[in-house]
Amino acid sequence: MRYYQLLFTLFFTLTIGTAPAQQPEGITYPYPVQMLSFQLESQPVKMAYMDVKPARSNGKVVVLLHGKNFNGFYWKGVIQYLTGRGYRVIVPDQLGWGKSSHPNIHYSFHRLAANTKHLLNTLKITKATVIGHSMGGMLATRFSLLYPETVERLVLENPIGLEDYKTFIPYQPLETLYKKERSATYESYKQYQQTYYPVWKPEYEDLVKAQAADLQSPDFKNIAWANAVTYQMIYEQPVYYEFENITAPTLLIIGQEDRTVVGKNVLPKNEQAKYGQYPVLGQETAKRIRNAKLVELDGVGHIPHIQTPDRFVKALGEFLK
């Protein structure tokens, strides 16, 4: 681990900002947001995070890692559940998302994992349960592989990356991805998020608003670029081949109606149904991870903690006992 400690020394210069982060119009994060400022690739960046402490601590920490079309905003109910049971909960917005900076850097799961580890080091946290949803599941997997001594338990909630997308999704140049991100609208965000659920409900609209707040940002060009290069990151940096190397006890929570495929829209219609088959992918992945427990949620799509929060926290609570 001396190698990674050296990387932290070389790449990070720490200052902590205590002022609350500015809230996007119409979007209020459920808890106060703090900023961790540091230097990355010779430029200053700020990483937003919530650090929510329980009224009565059990001495344990949980880290929540968001998906690609989300940020820390959507973890509200899970934070409430965990702090109510004594857990301290750390919820970062990864660089490139939410209230964090959107720098023009080389985005990689290794880099995002290192940023997250830097945050935990700053907060003097040495052990945690790590929960990752969607793209956050890929990041949580990479974090667990890089820092196994830090991960007490791992929870993967409908993670993407259970198959290697570059083996069947046609390649898209970065210019094409950027153009698509620049042309995004509230309605295009909503149409995509509607695919996450078997039945759309009005209460899901808040997650669209949280994502669409970026459209009004003066930094939208940089946000769109970060969205494009992180799509490329998912495509080019699979974790699919390394599940056997996870050592932490792992819970897979898989909504059985999920059919998410990154880049599905560029597949021919007759090919789309072959992929994103989460009932099969969940079982295959559980067999490959040592110490894995699989919970299958019938009738549930891509975001169990939003669609069926009671069933999600029931599975989570039993695993954390």
TrEMBL record:
The keyword Ubl conjugation is assigned to this record: no
A Pfam match: Abhydrolase_1
Protein name: Alpha/beta hydrolase
Example of a GO biological process term: acylglycerol catabolic process
Gene Ontology cellular-component terms listed: membrane
Annotated organism of origin: Arsenicibacter rosenii
Keyword Isomerase listed: no
UniProt GO molecular function: monoacylglycerol lipase activity
